[in-house]
Amino acid sequence: MSSAPADGAAATQPATSGARKVYVKSYGCQMNVYDSHRMADTLASSGYTETSSPEGADLVILNTCHIRERAAEKVYSELGRLREMKDSAALEGRQVRIAVAGCVAQAEGKEIIRREKTVDLVVGSQNYHRLPELLARAHNGPVVDTEFPVEDKFEHLGKPSASKIRTRGISAFLTIQEGCDKFCTFCVVPYTRGVEVSRPAASIIAEAERLADAGVREITLIGQNVNAYHGQGPDGRTWTLGKLLERIAGIRGIVRLRYSTSHPRDMDDSLYAAHRDIPAVMPQLHLPVQSGSDRILAAMNRGHTRAEFMHVVERLRAIRPDMAFTSDIIVGFPGETDEDFEDTMRLVRDVPFTSGYAFNYSTRPGTPAAEREDQIPENVKTARLHRLQALLEQQRHSFNMRSMGACVPVLFDKAGRLPGQMVGRSMFLQPVHVMADAAIISTVADVEINEINSNGLFGTLVHAPRAHEAAAMELQKA
Ligand code: 5AD
Ligand code: SF4
Using one digit for the tens of pLDDT, what is the confidence trace for 313-341? Predict the structure, then answer.
């Protein structure tokens, strides 16, 4: 859907001079974080530099999320605040432009312009590469572009400079797949992000190499349904996620690999093999289960039972006994009884998940579950949510406590809050703090854990810096 002129003929060329500032505010998932970076990279070629606050920005982009309740309302109230900012900037003779991107933009389209006149541009998630051109068009009046274009957006998005990559840190997200065909009955993603599309492996590999050359050490391959990846390989064959992980693990400098978010039904043999054979693939998996009740899983159209989910968990554990699982869980799906909820609590204990995100079910317009008449009262949902969150928190704490006295490999990424303190992540993404030289940043070193609190794990360096994972990887690649 587009209210913009049918083609770019009326568009003026994007300006390339002047130090204009863009502020991108990201809501929701890691896919949006990645998209926000790529929007900023694309606008860099039109003379925009990124800024970390809306004050003083010439362009503000809200990169929105539509997954749960009140998402659109939150965007409208943020737009109200931005309108005031834009109006007072105008009084000072400064023009501020406002764009809405992401899933709310995709879902609401023209409605945003109708409700909030301050918006100059509404851009859907497949059109970010067109931002400079769309902004140029928006000089003549508001523009909406939420079409699914024929061209591959990834090929046209701006690429970050090495220094930009470095400012974003040593861990990077890399989108390899977008959209979802699973149609879980509670979820808007198949409607907002469209069908499953995988990027060709060659373009992903090139991006991973660029990240590694600039100093990135850990890559998380991301997608709405990342383990359904089936992109075209450089050999002309269809590559699976397992094959892609194997190839990226071979890139010099990459010491850790992760992927998210996965669907239990799309775990294939190559992915199990990747966990078995590739040391860089971390023994940690975010595997949303949504419910522990077979009745609710069927009503959610998840396409798997509780037993099938447990089978995936057990198969991975047989390969990597230290494998840790986190999950997304919805409580109060229509028709959920106390018994169904107890099944969920049991599953959380049985896995056991080392942490997780629990959500109250919220009706999403246009999804099948929203039509059901057996909606659960909010107070029941909330009572269940609190119990589930307490259990998840307890399990997170016991998992952390298991590291007490252990020696864990840590990938260091930044200075801590205290002078001389460095912070990194364990294989399970727990923050780990030590006193160490800043030279340890971007290496892997062993830490003996001797304190655990709500801010994470604390310990002392065993070898300073030993970087054994990095060394092993480099040897393997030599
Ligand atoms: N209500 C509550 N939670 C939802 N999620 C997706 N749709 C809904 C909804 N309608 C949760 C799922 C998903 C996570 C990203 O958001 O648990 O895995
Ligand atoms: Fe939504 Fe289900 Fe697809 Fe996940 S798998 S994005 S919950 S439809």
Answer: 999 999 999 999 999 999 999 999 999 99
